[in-house]
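[User]
Um, tokens okay?
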Amino acid sequence: MTTSDAVSEAAVEEKSLKPGIYLEEKISTIGTGSTAKSAEYRTFWVTLTVSEKSAVMVLLNDDFRPTAIRETFSTEVLLGPSWHYIAEGEKRYSILRPHLDKMLAPPATARSSAPAKSASSGNWWDGGAPAKAAAPKKKAEPAKKNNWWDS
């Protein structure tokens, strides 16, 4: 391997997207006119999945825990000047990885504990025979009392 091969291989490796924690820096202007000020925003993201052309990232909160906010960024954006790979975050990334794997797992379906009705349940919409309607109950007639006006 020549030195030029080693240099070009290092450049390719430097340009590839690594799984881990990234810092996004944005400079924005707050206010208008004479009250306008520049503000710098720093947010930390962790890679959920990485491919050749994009990465799904999860926003980290102030305690460096994953939030529910997910975004897909292209590799070109993540390798741009406002994104920085945090090499010191590899230990933190290894701690976060099990939590991220849980986020990738499909949600478990809830099983209902109610028994399923049989096909011959008698509902008209499922093709069963209509259930026989119970005869309406007769109201019990009140017992006749011998009141002073009845006599």
Observations:
- The chain has three helices and five strands.
- Residues 90-104 form the longest helix (15 residues).
- The radius of gyration is 34 Å.
- The mean pLDDT is 77.
